[in-house]
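Quick one: structure tokens for this chain, please?
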Amino acid sequence: MADAVLTRERVFDLMQGYRNTSLLRTGIRLGVFTSLAEGPAEAGELAARLDIDPRGATILLNALVAIGLLERKDTEFRLVDGADELLAGPRSVAHLATILASDWEWDALKVLDEAVRRGGVVVDDNAESSDFAYWQDFATFATAATGPTAGLVADELADWLDTRPTPTALDVACGHGMYGFTLAARQPSLRVWGLDWPHVVPIAAENAARLGVRDRVDFIEGDMFEVPLGGAYDVVFVTNVLHHFAEDRATALLARAANVIKPGGKLVVVGFTTTDEPPDADPAPYLFSVLMLAWTKGGEVHSERAYDRMLTEAGFTAAEVHRLPGVPMRVLIADRA
């Protein structure tokens, strides 16, 4: 993108981007898209269906037309092509707005300038708070988005786990727990321990029950840097968490994991990574680093070179890096050295 030219229109779009997010989130929260999936409606009719103010409904619906999420014919509103699947149907991604456009993220990014000045978090309620309520939403709503990478991990480990007698796994900062539970669903002999804060564990337990593996899942509650980890385990998962810490702190967590992995065992890391490509070639990890700046003391998305350093220092071999088309997260699988 070296030849890209910034236009006046692009600047104005960036300045007002938050309005589009707000409109999408409001439409999801009020049930506009699910209601219109049942059929087109005038503003007054939809207002009655959703028990909202007719004037408010009219302004919202016209704005949703303006940004291309609805269309209007005369006085009747309807979904645009694709909206029934993406925002209302069984494969809807609308629930992800709860985590991708969360109030906590908005609050932190409103003071991003101060976070940049200080080099880290300035809001009190943040990713390093033990009672951060966002983690409950993440555990509840991120399960569907985890499916592709959890499936990849299960595919990669299936044959190897068949060679391990009575295999066990530890999922550090398990959140929804889907990495361990997906693997357990494929491997009937696998037992999983999930580690997370006390207010997150009940949600993970519900997911384990939904996947039919609750009887093979135990939980450890507490701080992953301090609580006894138990073990030893054949597999340790460290997923979507190392970007919360600077390289030395992330290495310390990986070293804790190495200490509880059986000889010949494996480590699975999932998260964003950067490469030697320029940021505009792969924007997602760099944009996510901005959130880490606003939410943590020293976190950022680590490069694949940094992961090589961290894994070697913590006692692992260099990782195999796995990618899925259209999925910004990477899966790194390493052996205990």
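The two ends are 40 Å apart (CA to CA).
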